[in-house]
Design goal:
- The protein folds into two domains: 172 residues, 3-Layer(aba) Sandwich (Peroxisomal Thiolase, Chain A, domain 1); 147 residues, Peroxisomal Thiolase, Chain A, domain 1 (3-Layer(aba) Sandwich), CATH 3.40.47.10.
- The chain has ten helices and 13 strands.
- Strands 1-7-6-4-5 form a five-stranded mixed beta sheet, sandwiched between helices.
- Helix 3 packs parallel to helix 4 and helix 7 runs parallel beside helix 8.
- It is globular.
- Bound molecules: oxa(dethia)-CoA (UT7).
- The site of oxa(dethia)-CoA has 20 residues, from helix 2, helix 7 and strand 12.
Length: 329
């Protein structure tokens, strides 16, 4: 009997309609289109404006898009994982509401959090279930409403982050396609450099904290940048080495979209032709858990069965990693 691997067999996506451009940000904070474009590669981002709608709204839309495209019966889904850093509410799992809303009535569901590496870590989790034979159809959604935790008046963060969601279906494959290898890491030393200090269990929200705007994300951009450049490049090159792949064997690098300069540094380290690097940061900014599935959605029409994809991500915590996957359709 041939070995069962875990393959991505469908992709869906959703971004909110509201477009926040660099020019619009110029009117709110002391910045410029020129600075943002040259320092990050971002031109615009999407924001979920409607009151009362959270990350599940984005996740449901992305999953629904996948279901419609694939002609999937949601009753056949075994598990729904929502990879996110911005759950709808504390205590109530965003994934449960998402699964029920898409009609996945036979599935169980849970949220998975690893900041910007959530989707990658979720891919590893989902693949393990499939490889073991325990489940057959897993919907993994990367979704984040970053605008809910970003200070609109902080130019260090408001220029970077956007809202969005992407979803993939993961199923068994007997042709050797799908996930081939992974190298995933974390280091808690990073938590002081990218975090919302108040609003979690360590420091519940207070009136004073709100007055000091401490419920919002703080980022020491330079430190995060340095760590992201080193670690994303490091794990990507390790995955290549471990699987005896050269730059010519790679069809696509699928890098987390946080800053175009981090992406370029990762591609340079493995000496990859820029044409092989998936990129959409200019239109969405950093959508945290959604960047990788949004890339897959944007590039889906260019992907071919057997293509070799190298995923790489880095995020808060710190968390980071790389996955080598062969495209299955
Ligand atoms: O998803 C994972 C987590 N996030 C990341 O991976 C993001 C990592 N960090 C970054 O992408 C970059 O550090 C930023 C884009 C956040 C900042 O870029 P930078 O090149 O590291 O800028 P900097 O913080 O070193 O600031 C350079 C200058 C400073 O001015 P002075 O001191 O040189 O006069 C800043 O005050 O740019 C100034 N600056 C800005 N100017 C205009 C900082 N932010 C802005 C801004 N607009 N938005």
């Amino acid at each position: 009997m041939s070995k069962i691997t875990a393959a991505i067999t469908a992709v869906g996506a959703y971004v909110p309609e509201y477009v926040l451009t660099n020019k619009m940000l110029e009117a709110v904070v002391n910045t410029s289109d020129e600075w943002i474009t040259s320092r990050t590669g971002i031109k615009e981002r999407r924001i979920l404006k409607e009151e009362g709608k959270g990350t599940s709204f984005l996740a449901i839309k992305a999953a629904q898009n996948l279901i419609d495209k694939k002609g999937l019966d949601p009753k056949d889904i075994d598990l729904v994982i929502v990879a996110t850093a911005t759950q709808d509410m504390k205590a109530a799992t965003t994934a449960a509401y998402t699964a029920t809303s898409i009609g996945a009535v036979n599935a169980f569901s849970y949220d998975l959090g690893a900041a910007c590496s959530s989707f990658l870590f979720g891919l590893s989790t989902a693949a393990s279930y499939i490889e073991s034979g325990r489940y057959k159809k897993i919907v993994l959604i990367g979704a984040d409403k970053n605008s809910s935790m970003i200070d609109p008046l902080d130019r260090a963060t408001c220029i970077i982050f956007g809202d969005g969601a992407g979803a993939v279906l993961i199923e068994p494959n007997s042709e050797g396609l799908g996930l081939q290898d992974e190298y995933l890491r974390s280091d808690g030393i990073g938590r002081e450099y990218l975090r919302a200090e108040y609003g979690g269990s360590s420091n519940p929200i207070t009136k004073e904290a709100i007055e000091q705007r401490k419920q919002y994300i703080y980022q020491d951009g330079k430190t995060v940048f340095k760590n992201a450049v080193f670690n994303m490049a490091d794990v990507a090159s390790k995955i290549l080495e471990r699987n005896q792949l050269t730059k010519d064997d790679i069809t696509w690098l699928v890098p987390h979209q946080a800053n175009k300069r981090i992406i370029d540094a990762t591609a340079n380290r493995i000496e990859l032709d820029p044409n092989k690097v998936m990129l959409n940061i200019e239109k969405y900014g950093n959508t945290t858990s959604a960047t990788l599935p949004l890339l897959l959605s944007d590039y889906e029409s260019q992907l071919k069965k057997g293509d070799r994809l190298i995923f790489a991500a880095f995020g808060g915590g710190f968390t980071w990693g790389s996955i080598y996957l062969k495209w299955a359709y």
